[in-house]
Design brief:
The complex is a heterodimer of chains A (338) and B (413). Chain A is built from twelve helices and 14 strands. Chain A is of the alpha/beta class and 338 residues long. In chain A, the strands form three sheets. In chain A, strands 3-2-4-5-7-6-12 form a seven-stranded mixed beta sheet, sandwiched between helices. In chain A, helix 1 packs parallel to helix 7. In chain B, the strands form two sheets. Chain B has a five-stranded parallel beta sheet with strand order 1-2-3-7-6, sandwiched between helices. A two-stranded antiparallel sheet of chain B has the order 4-5. In chain B, helix 7 links the parallel strand 2 and strand 3. The longest helix of chain B has 26 residues. Chain B is globular, with a radius of gyration of 22 Å. Classes of the chains: A alpha/beta (338), B alpha/beta (413). The complex binds thiamine diphosphate and magnesium ion. The site of magnesium ion has 7 residues of chain B, from strand 4. Thiamine diphosphate sits at the interface of chains B and A.
């Protein structure tokens, strides 16, 4: 075991896979010599060479398309899109091609591509370095969608994604790169070394895609969340002295409805939280699914906590971000209902 | 002879710890490239895409067919605007370090591109800049306080706090809103120009893109639409050699010049010394005349060098020699225009020092004025509820509800 932050854990996952499987290649903007703008691919090109770790032109559509072609020809590409906000030039290749290749060719062609991309706000990045677009990928049939909330899961899920023959869109909450973040920007940063899930095995292991985790067991209510919001919700519930069960979704597609619904059925109350915009966000899918399966167990309406339905404004980052205050209001409402 | 294919990886000439190398850079002597008529057929002038239009020689003399013969006063104004851009940039950079602004991007070494081009165009011409074209704003006379208030996201920010610093817009000045997403402005400028042609307007459009961003599909959409409709547009690739850590070879510059993509689409392509104020001015005038007389678009590659870090979040010492810029063969645009004016007997080191001091004072006074409207750390602050405005022309009910929720969250409910 070693102490790793999220960056080191992701780096280690790619290092392990580049070492084990000669088919694995890593590509993206500024990821080779430089090691990536967030340093996630640091040292990989030096270790594995320029034919395995490729700097690319600035063309997200080209990156995804090239990764598909490589995947069809036997490689296992891991493509980095520098910010999730810049994935859209590659959206057509992802939605129309990557997601459907297996289906339209009746299983004869497929591309085992993993697309890694940092998402989320809290770094003063303004509207083009802060987005959380997971819902518009989860909505597309044929894509697996993953978002870890800690270094241990990040490494295990990334290895599982690379080994998966299906395409995986792998979101990295960038505000968590260096430490768990509880939503309070004025508090001193906490490093991952202070968190049990900053302990990460150095070698190969996987965390299964399609399995949610109970980040905290509890009985008062269930908070269903993922990414940065796992930590914000933990802090908010702690502040209220609530014995909340926190389900970290980890994988949006395929969704682990069993774990989620078993928890809500037990507690009878549910708050859903994500950083992405609320309208038609992934929380809507969660709420609908929980309602379908747990209606007779619910003691209060399910509430959603989310980013507002506006672009992510530079000057109002903390008024936009669904911080503890917004979570607390929802927790109170759900606890007081019924 | 190799018997199988091999993946080529573009070569980066010098990395940290190595000696700068610009021997690969193809230069033409000042005055060496012919100047065709602005109405020439694009297929007849492909030499412009491979040569390098230069007017100022190493001694600071203006020579050759592209010499624009500008009035001395215009040269002095150009020098002033380039220097002001630089002084402004330096000040913003220092202020970012102090935490009063979140982010900044300098244009060190590229000032001639924006300033000379703005000067060569008319006020009604519509500009679609990238984030490294602050010189356009300055040359069009935008008050520094306006730019500073945007960078501060304060109560007088033209973007109402919504955009990252330097992503300005200026409607009255005919400068379009800058996107954080690369390359998107390029084909939009073509659409604007098509509308100008449809509506019978006299104005042309101009847009700027980094050589790195020219890899995006939007670049190719721009060239194709411009070519198909012969749109009155000037499309500029600012080849400053670097895209963050990535050398221009990765954008395709190793095989062919960026200007040469023009002829591939049937567009006039022209490569210019981007650090030569006179040359940039001259080719812009040529392209504007070409566009205004119905001869269609021009793709201009400005050969220059990104003298500063990519942004305040970047450390170029990680990927290029520390002193790389000092070895750049095309020198410094401010210094070169200054030498030219001195040679003409119309400038001096003393006047230059005086101008620097005056501009420093102007920037300092503007900063003082701008901070009266708030900084990131000091009031007054923009009202956060502005966040819900302008998503749509009229605020729909769900945003009204969220606005109210935010009020409650902030204890104002
Ligand atoms: C679509 C998109 N992809 C990636 C980025 C991230 N990014 C911002 S600037 C930049 C480098 C651009 O280099 P270049 O076009 O040469 O312009 P320069 O910075 O040199 O002026 C990158 C990759 C972005 N803003 N938008
Ligand atoms: Mg560049």
């Amino acid at each position: 075991m070693a102490q790793m932050n999220l960056i080191h854990a992701l780096n280690s996952a790619m290092d392990v896979m580049l070492g084990r499987d000669p088919a694995v290649v890593v590509l993206g903007e500024d990821i080779g010599y430089f090691g990536g703008v967030f340093r996630v691919t640091e040292g990989l090109q030096r270790k594995y060479g320029e034919h395995r770790v490729l700097d690319t032109p600035i063309a997200e559509g080209g990156i995804i398309a090239a990764a598909i072609g490589m995947g069809v020809n036997g490689l296992r590409p891991v493509a980095e899109i520098q910010f999730a906000d810049y994935i859209y030039p590659g959206y057509d290749q992802i939605v129309s091609e990557l997601a459907r290749l297996r289906y339209r060719s009746a299983g004869e062609f497929f591309a085992p591509v993993t697309v890694r991309t940092p998402c989320g706000g809290g770094i003063r990045g303004g509207q083009t370095h802060s987005q959380s677009p997971e819902a518009i990928f989860a909505h597309v049939s044929g894509l697996k969608v993953v978002m870890p909330s800690n270094p241990y899961d990040a490494k295990g899920l990334l290895i599982a994604s690379i080994e998966d023959d299906d395409p995986v869109i792998f979101f990295e909450p960038k505000r968590l790169y260096n430490g768990p973040f509880d939503g309070n920007p004025n508090q001193a940063a906490v490093p991952w070394s202070a968190h049990p899930l900053g302990e990460v095995p150095e070698g190969h292991y996987t965390v299964p895609i399609g399995k949610a985790a109970i980040a905290r067991a509890g009985s008062d209510l269930t908070i269903v969340t993922y990414g940065t919001m796992v930590h914000v919700c933990e802090a908010a519930a702690r502040g209220l002295g609530l014995d909340a069960e926190i389900v970290d979704v980890r994988t949006m597609v395929p969704l682990d409805t069993d774990t989620i619904c078993a928890s809500v059925a037990r507690t009878g109350r549910c708050v859903i939280a994500h950083e992405a915009t609320r309208f038609a966000g992934f929380g809507a899918e969660l709420a609908a699914t929980i309602q379908e399966q747990c209606f007779w167990n619910l003691e209060a309406p399910i509430l959603r906590v989310a980013g507002w339905d506006t672009p992510y404004p530079h000057a109002f980052e903390w008024e936009y971000f669904p911080g503890q205050a917004r979570v607390v209001r929802a927790l109170r409402t759900v606890m007081e209902a019924g | 002879m190799p018997t199988r294919s091999r993946l080529h990886v573009p070569v980066t000439p010098a990395r940290p710890g190595e000696i700068s190398d610009f021997s690969w850079l193809r230069l033409s002597p000042a005055g060496a490239i012919a100047r065709p008529e602005p109405g020439a057929r694009s297929g007849d002038i492909t030499f412009l895409a491979d040569g390098l239009v230069r007017v100022l020689d190493d001694a600071g003399e203006a020579i050759g067919p592209w010499h624009p013969h500008l009035e001395v006063q215009d040269l002095q104004i150009g020098l002033r605007h380039m220097l002001l851009t630089r002084v402004f940039d330096d000040r913003m950079q220092r202020i970012q370090r102090s935490g009063k602004i979140s982010f900044y991007m300098r244009s060190l070494g590229e000032e001639a591109v924006s300033v000379a081009q703005a000067q060569a165009l008319r006020p009604a011409d519509m500009l679609f800049p990238s984030y490294r074209n602050q010189g356009l704003q300055i040359a069009r006379g935008r008050p520094l306080v306006d730019l500073m208030c945007q960078v501060l996201s304060n109560t007088r920010d033209m973007c109402k706090g919504r955009q990252l610093p330097v992503l300005y817009h200026w409607r009255e000045g005919n400068i379009f809103s800058i996107s954080g997403n690369l390359a998107t402005q390029f084909p939009q400028a073509v659409g604007w120009a098509m509308a100008a042609a449809i509506r019978g307007q006299d104005a042309v459009a101009a847009s700027w893109i980094g050589e790195g961003a020219s890899a995006e599909a939007d670049f190719h959409h721009a060239l194709l639409f411009a070519s198909v409709y012969r749109a009155p547009v000037i499309l500029n690739v600012v080849n400053n050699q670097w895209a963050i850590s990535t050398f221009q070879g990765f954008a395709g510059g190793e095989q062919r010049t960026f200007a040469a993509r023009g002829p591939g689409y049937g567009i006039a392509g022209l490569r210019v010394d981007g650090n030569d104020f006179l040359a940039v001015h001259a080719v812009t005038q040529w392209a504007a005349e070409r566009a205004r007389t119905g001869h269609g678009p021009t793709l201009i590659e400005h050969v220059t060098y990104r003298g500063a870090a990519h942004s305040t979040s970047d450390d170029p010492a990680r990927y290029r020699p520390r002193d790389d810029y000092q070895h750049w063969p095309l020198g410094d645009p401010v210094e070169r225009l200054k030498q030219h004016l001195i040679r003409l007997g119309e400038w001096s080191e003393e006047r230059h020092a005086g101008l620097s001091a005056e501009l420093e004072d102007h920037v300092a006074a503007s900063w003082k004025e701008a901070t009266r409207f708030g900084t990131l750390t000091d009031p007054p602050r923009l009202d956060p509820h502005l966040m819900f405005e302008d998503v749509f022309r009229e605020m729909p009910p769900h945003l009204r509800r969220q606005d109210a929720e935010l009020r409650a969250e902030r204890g104002q409910g």
